[in-house]
Write a structure and sequence with these properties.
Helix content: 25-40%
CATH class: Alpha Beta
Strand content: 25-35%
Bound molecules: adenosine-5'-diphosphate, magnesium ion
Distance between the termini: 33 Å
CATH architecture: 3-Layer(aba) Sandwich
CATH topology: Rossmann fold
Structural class: alpha/beta
Number of helices: 9
CATH superfamily: P-loop containing nucleotide triphosphate hydrolases
Shape: globular
Radius of gyration: 19 Å
Length: 276
């Protein structure tokens, strides 16, 4: 047996930066589609310096909430404030300089090269001083998302996991204060899941805000500062991983018995389904 390359993911999570402020605030946000409420009365603050994970069963409203918070989706009730100003009062270009969004489905159908896709993340910065950092931003994003070997490939010819990492690189290249990631780890192998979450944490600790939808509760628990749990369009709980991920709450939300295991007393929880 030999050691595998790569940095091990052990070690404690670095502390919150002391400079942390509420950058985004949802007040009583509700979304109705086809006459049916799919998100009800969500109140939520997003702070710089934190990773906020959104979890919950399929159809719970996670993507809808992410869309409402990012300004990509219209909501019917309430308000979302970015630095105290309503999202709807920002111009599209201003929003693109404040937040980047990795959507659940990769929307690209034209056979762009991977390097062209990543470079799209720089579009909001054309004709600004930040455009000087272009090459550096792209190189860093490519390295973080581990897609250097794919840059001359066509996006449409990549596997699902490779596409997800290229889309992540585009979002990272955008270098925004707020980063929204909808299931960025869904198609990824174990190592790349950890890489993406480590990169998210590093962004947060560098003073950004990361809002990430995850299905893997143990992964969310390991990396998130706070977890918001959605069920049936409602934000059922929000708090630290240990506060939110109790066996009772997870069992009720998913309709499945689970055991919440702490590898060491007080450590972040690991959630295991109860099996016969
Ligand atoms: P999640 O991301 O948690 O799986 P979504 O936010 O995508 O859930 O969707 C929440 C619910 O709203 C689901 O029942 C979904 O079918 C419904 N929904 C989402 N978008 C629309 C839409 N445009 N029209 C009608 N129903 C929708
Ligand atoms: Mg979704």
């Amino acid at each position: 047996m030999s050691d595998l390359p790569g940095t091990p993911v052990t070690g404690s999570i670095p502390a919150h930066p002391s400079e942390s402020r509420v950058v985004l605030e949802a007040r009583g946000v509700g979304v109705t589609r086809d006459g049916r409420p799919i998100l009800h009365d969500v109140n939520l603050e997003v702070r710089t310096g934190e990773v906020l994970a959104l979890v919950g069963p399929n159809g719970a409203g996670k993507s809808t909430l992410l869309g409402a918070l990012s300004g990509e989706l219209d909501y019917d009730h309430g308000t979302v404030l970015l630095d105290g100003k309503r999202l709807g009062d920002y111009r599209t270009i201003e929003l693109a300089r404040r937040r980047a969004v990795l959507n659940q489905a990769s929307e690209v159908s034209f056979p762009f090269l991977v390097r062209e896709i990543v470079a799209m993340g720089r579009n909001p910065w054309v004709r600004t001083p930040q455009f000087d950092d272009d090459e550096k931003a792209i190189a860093e994003a490519v390295r973080t998302a581990d897609v250097g070997h794919l840059v001359e490939r066509r996006f449409t010819a990549l596997s699902g996991g490779e596409r997800a990492r290229v889309s992540l690189a585009r979002v990272l290249a955008q270098r925004t204060e707020i980063v929204f990631l909808d299931e960025p780890t869904a198609a990824l192998d174990l190592r790349h899941q950890e890489d993406v979450m480590r990169a998210s944490l590093a962004l947060a600790r560098a003073g950004r805000a990361v809002v990430v939808v995850l299905h893997d509760l143990s992964l969310a628990a390991a990396y998130a500062d706070r977890i918001g749990m959605l069920t049936g369009g409602t934000l059922a709980a929000i708090g630290t991983p240990n506060e939110v991920l109790t066996a009772e709450r997870v069992g009720r939300a998913y309709g499945l018995g689970v055991r919440v295991y702490h590898p060491t007393p007080g450590s972040r929880p690991v959630i295991l389904p109860l099996r016969d």
